[in-house]
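Sample pair:
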Amino acid sequence: MGTVPFDDPVMAALARAAGPCALKSERRRSPYEALASAIAHQQLTGKAAATILGRFRALYPHGRLPAPEELLDTPDEALRAVGFSRAKAAALRDLAAKTLDGTVPPRAKLARLPDDAIVERLTEVRGVGRWTVEMFLIFTLGRPDVLPVDDYGVRNGFRIAYRKRELPAPKRLAAFGERWAPHRSTAAWYLWRAVDLHREGRL
């Protein structure tokens, strides 16, 4: 997405320190695949989630993610055996069912909807909240103007960049972030980078 020239001097300085925005989206992933992966990653480290997803794929031919129909035909015992909790197994089943009934539509159809409509639609899936859909909007659909104000990293990055003592309340951050439109996804990326730069002693 490159470096966006923010009018906000603090964000502009952060963009200069961090360099060009390297935000990329996984444009080949279907909504079903992206949300299945997101559910698997919830409350786990990336390494633990990758291990469980590897075992999950190994249940199916060619080690691929199962089609929704295949997932619904998989016994709960098998899902639990690869490491999914009961709640995650139930969420994956609900995702599969809602993909088949059209609640979670194909990517091409979903891409025609505005952000708020996608959030409303996909949060109907068990275990999928607003934050998960916002990550989907940024990293799968490549939407340019999403600010995940409930994200701890974004809030902490704001605290660091703007030299605040406390994390901003989500509503306050949302109001403040209106000045970054229509590049709020890029702003979120820079706020995540602010945390990294601070850890490295560069901010």
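The radius of gyration is 19 Å.
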